Here is the input.
Amino acid sequence: MGTRLKVLSTFKALHRTRIAVFKEDDRALKAARLKINEEFRKNKNETSDENIKKMIKMGSDVEAVLREGVLQMEHVGDKKLMLRPRESLLLENVPYCDQPRKKS
Here is the structure.
C-alpha cells in the first residue's frame, strides 16, 4: 500500500474511532475532530518517508488507545457519574479455574 493511502487510512480510522468512542458527546466529538484535522494539516507537507512512517505508527497507536482505553462517563447528579461502556469493552465474567476442563 502506498504511503498516501496509509496516511488516508489512518486519518479515516481515527475519525471512525472518534465517532464510536465519543458517541452522543458533541463537545468531545468536535474537539477530537479539530485535533485530528489540525495534526494532519500541520504535517501535510512532510516529505521524509521515515518521519511519515513514524507519524502513521503514532496515529495507529492513538487510535488503539482511544478504542481500547477510553470510557464515557456522564454526570447524573452531585458527585455521581454514570459509566457508559461500549460493547467492545465489556468482557465475559468467567471465574478463574486451575483445573483444565474435562472433555466429555
About this structure: Residues 49-69 form the longest helix (21 residues).
